[in-house]
Amino acid sequence: MSARFQEIDWRPTPMGEISLRRRRDPASGDDVYEVKLGDEFLMSSLFTLGETELTRLGLAELPDAPLDVAVGGLGLGYTARAALDDRRVASLMVVDALGEVIDWHRRGLVPLGAGLAADDRCRLVHGDFFALATGPGGLDPEEPGRRFHAILLDVDHSPRHVLHPSHAALYRPAGLRALAGLLHPGGAFALWSNDPPDAEFGAVLAEVFPHTRAHVVTFGNPLQGGTSTNTVYVARRGTDSS
Prior knowledge:
By secondary structure, this protein is of the alpha/beta class. It contains 7 helices and 11 strands.
């Protein structure tokens, strides 16, 4: 049995101090992994349905054919793991701005890390997803102009509550158009949000993508009791070849 509480790693980063902690849940006896950025909780292994639903909903309407998928935000790895568990996924590129988080996975400090790092379909890339997505070369530093069948994004709390001011431009029409250009015709962009569906952002999304939908994901909240919700936005690019 693990110690009741352990700070596994702590690092200063350009975005603030980041820490990986493990604690034992007194109710279940299970280990819970948590990531904090400064004083703010970024993620917890207690709440992973939103991440796995991001993948499921984002890939749900894509064809039964080999898929190239990109994920923005590695975190504890649940979005990436769900993608690799989909038999259609032929390649997965995960982009994270914090090399420290990638290092946790490669060193096996988080439960899913060793499996992700060892899967030959999965490549972990240290980079700024937002700068790459809106830059001239595209998301893949090794293959400029590469397109994907799906792009799944789980970095900010929501389009209105971003972790860094530089992220905000992606959620505006010009940023979304740049991102849409990284998708194959008919490809999907899916976005996780901790806020309820935002009609204003939904309207912006619909300016760029012909098919959009906001899905509410409901899950049990053992910390507060009752249930909580996340939102997963899914947007499909048209099937034209442009």
